[in-house]
Amino acid sequence: MSRYLARYMVSRYFSSASSRPLHVCIVGSGPAGFYTADKVLKAHEGAHVDIIDRLPTPFGLVRSGVAPDHPETKIAINQFSRVAQHERCSFIGNVKLGSDLSLSELRDLYHVVVLAYGAESDKDLGIPGESLSGIYSAREFVWWYNGHPDYSCLKPDLKTSDSAVILGQGNVALDVARILLRPTTELASTDIATHALSALKESSIRKVYLIGRRGPVQAALTAKELREVLGIKNLHIRIKQTDLSVTPADEEEMKTSRARKRIYELLSKAAAAAKTSKADPDQRELHFVFFRQPDQFLESDERKGHVSGVNLQKTILESVGTGKQIAVGTGEFEDLNCSMVLKAIGYKSVPVNGLPFDHKKGVVPNVKGRVVSHTSGDISQTEPGLYVCGWLKRGPVGIIATNLYCAEETVGSISEDIEEGVWKSSKAGSKGLMQLLEKRKVKKVEFSGWEKIDAKEKQMGIERNKPREKLVTWEDLLAAAAN
Amino acid sequence: MLGHRISRFGSTIVKQLAREGYISTYGRRNLQRSYGHYLPSLPVVPRQARTSQEAWFLKSHKFCTSSTTSSENGDEETEKITIIFVDKDGEEIPVKVPIGMSVLEAAHENDIDLEGACEASLACSTCHVIVMDTEYYNKLEEPTDEENDMLDLAFGLTET
Question: For chain A, what percentages of helix, strand and coil (3-state, to nearest 5) are there?
């Protein structure tokens, strides 16, 4: 009780004791950024929050990551829009940290800077052949079909063969598998980017292999997504019965996690149903391949520089204590032919100048959201006024709602620091940022600019029986925003 | 932090239930083990049990519902009952809502700050509810597969 009461009293004290408002800048306008903004605004009456993003469009992965056939997941945008329209909040798009301004400049302008810019890069496998063409990260493929302006020109090869391999068995892997295998008639009425829909209409991909290093008990996907893909009409699921045998260690894992148990049961049911379905030549197939890890990518003889398959090593599981099992190679190998590989093995964050970064974990070192400058023994020295939230803080895991609790923790730390009286100097805040951007001739896009883009996309969508027709190039987006 | 809040509400609820002469033997620990579950509508109970019904709702992240149509009950003849929302500072806010309205809608209609990221479309877990009393929990239908899928991901999920 005391913490909430103290926070409440201090925020009142702060806003009444000084007429100087609390200037907060949040970098990144995805769920982490917006939940942080929402909580800061509610906790501190004197707070003014600027949310900057390098794209002209807000909402991060809710716009560019959530699959086109999952429109209900995008409803969170409504709440975020309300936050952006709050009188003490401003969205400023097309402003890139590291190019348009530096982290230290931002820290000079604001009392509090919260970095919530997520993870815009990928984990690498580090195996031979990884740079062959036809191999993409799932992130690139997702951004391509979701119309992200950086990837509208990706042109993935969907016509060379009937097989695609996806490395990884998380929800992103399921998303890309679904988009590759869903009938395009179903995709035509979603907000999928038109260039992707056209390419998928001409795609020859009929077999998608989801490869996991470990077994069905360890698969990272979640029940809702699995249930969805198992329910797609005319999509044949292939799972080897032998892959479904469980060890005592597996039973242990299922006992401690109801989610894992339910997923295993779903996969078992699917395997049983698969045995009874008959093969049809043009059918679409989704293969769940377990206990295989990629050893190298194979180059095509006919098309030099292009991938033609993956060499996989069979694995077995070994316990490493604390209930966890890891995959260990057995020395037995096999090849799987394909003309496209999507790596869905995890995202990775990108550091900026002046930001402490843990390159091994791919996150910013922090304690409850406070950025740590260095650690000696048990003591962590934190950077005053600098915080993180979302994937940049926790790593690229969790769902949209996970950021609610993440933001709660970070804002809790901010409020505690305010209580300690760390903000004594006055800062220029928004005014200072606008002056700096003006000086550097940055074409910022405010929320009203996004609303113009939004209106245009929805208008174009009506003409094509889609919820929206996304603008997919920087030029088109900036032109619509300035209209 | 969340655990601290649950136990705080737990104590508020226990005192309230005890005051109403309802089940007073439930310790704090038992209440925390209540099953996370969606509450589609308030169960219709006979008048004498009405006061205890008034006591059990928790505020905070712990609410919700599957989407229910309450529009058909919009007219004045719909029976209304009282719900007391207890917010995170311990403040009690009584509101009158028609039977059949979901708890999430009831909160939003009365400007009570309750998280519902997907606006009741069963696409997230931000409004999941913990029913503190096993007797009432047993009156509800089993959660559907879709609800359980969302609960798998819920923060602060508790077991009975």
Answer: 40, 25, 40
